[in-house]
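Annex B. Sample input.
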Amino acid sequence: MNAATQVHQRVDGEARIAFRRGADGRTALADLYQRAPCRVMFPATEPDEPVQAVLLTTSGGLTGGDRTRVAVEIAAHSRATLTTQAAEKIYRALPSTGDAIVQVEMQVGADAWAEWLAQETIVFEGSRLRRLFVADVAATARLLAVESIVFGRTAMGEHFDTGLLHDTWRIRRGGKLVWVDALHLEGEVRQLRGAPFGFGTSVACSTVLYVGADATQQLTEARRILSRCALPCGATSLDGIVIARIMAADAVELRAVVMQLVAGLRSAAGSLPARLPRVWTC
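Annex B, continued. Sample output.
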């Protein structure tokens, strides 16, 4: 087989995870399905932490034509944290392979507490990523979520100048679609990022989302925490959700602020320790 007709192997991974609250009042894993390269681990946690699932991609990253889908159900009255083992890497796509597709879907039942605390996604030069985060949150449930994008490892001289990034959020609360958002960068990405309405000199950005009946109260907390931040950032609230955005010219600085904000919100809203899962620091 010559180079012109060579077919490259692609991954199509999936994980389905369900948590239920038992008769003893403790949340436990109720169902699990995983298909490579998606893998889920369940580390022991401190007594004051919810049950935790850590997701990883055994392929070491994704490239054009790869697909992953993670579906999470956190049933009524349950409490669970989902995070990722490390930064997800999206590598250069060959012209014939299409886009990398990453989907996360969450269902959060009545009076449940759910956390999606993903570490950064790094997009490399020439990569093509379409990412979708969908959450259906009951009216009495709460969700804390974070997703971050890093435009190449600039400390190593790597950049994301050309390619595709399409990043979409769809949030339902109490059965009502309350927020849809999409970021689309394609082609000469460096020029688009540098536009006045774009990212300026920032090379990384994060979205932190909180969904809950006490959104107005948590907006005050988010703004209090961000008031100490020297980075371009802001927070707003609508229809029972808080949306915070942070940008930075240094991914390490962004990570530090994100950790402060998420730790503060999980403490204020969820009465949990003001810390992130150990995989964020180990």
